Amino acid sequence: MITTRTARQCGQADYGWLQARYTFSFGHYFDPKLLGYASLRVLNQEVLAPGAAFQPRTYPKVDILNVILDGEAEYRDSEGNHVQASAGEALLLSTQPGVSYSEHNLSKDKPLTRMQLWLDACPQRENPLIQKLALNMGKQQLIASPEGTMGSLQLRQQVWLHHIVLDKGESANFQLHGPRAYLQSIHGKFHALTHHEEKAALTCGDGAFIRDEANITLVARFPTARFADRFCLSSCFYREMMMSKKSAPKSAQPVKPRGGRKNLLAPPKFLAMKRC
Asked: What domains does the chain contain, in order, with CATH numbers?
């Protein structure tokens, strides 16, 4: 079953320094029926004005994935660490109890456009605190997975995240390994088809809940449509009025922020492996 969630149905915010679109309840926007989906707690599409920043705050135990669509961001924590990410990069923060984090648009004249996802993290698992990955323009790229498969970012959750690029008229079929998935369009228009012959049309900024489907087929209606699909929960990144920069594929790397603790690059510890 496919249930669409159009861009117009999402929560909206405009504070001058921040423009945002919320897929799920967040901040002032509250819908008791949309408190998250499986492990996906937050999916925000946001634009920060030049020089703007999110003030330091603490988080529940979640993995925060920031996908930079345009501009350059810097992330800082209360331990004195800071790391930067630019357009075409994905940065994963494994939040820690008692540590606060802030986000800054480094440019004084250019907005920062990015998508942010919060994923519930398994409490028994610890991963590198910061990881970064360059997005490529290939047909399909595994961005994140529980084991860091194929050079992807390593999550503390049973979630697989893919970035898909299709030209006009192209199609791709994907097997879903769990009962729930979420699909979100970054750019372009496409159809999502199930083996039950359900058909959903999505355009830039739209998303779709997918339930109890073994596989799904995506068919691009316009060139350079970008999608992402996830096992158990899938998502891709919304992009509006921006053009992604091409970059060569690179494996995810733990990032050593400047300052702070020395053990950030220690190998991840697997205290337990289970589905959360």
From this structure: 2-255 (2.60.120.10)
Q: How many residues does the chain have?
A: 276
Q: 40 and 182 in contact (C-beta within 8 Å)? A: yes
The token pair at 170 is 């192209």
Residue with token string 């498969």: 149
Residues 6+ apart with CB under 8 A from 238: 7, 21, 45, 69, 115, 184, 185, 186, 204, 205
Q: Residue 186 contacts by C-beta under 8 Å, 6 or more apart in sequence? A: 69, 204, 225, 226, 227, 228, 236, 237, 238, 239
Q: 126 vs 118, which has greater pLDDT?
A: 118
Q: Are 134 and 89 in contact (CB under 8 A)?
A: yes
Residue 11 near residue 43, CB atoms below 8 Å? no
For 237-265, what is each residue's pLDDT tens digit? 322 222 222 333 455 666 655 554 333 32
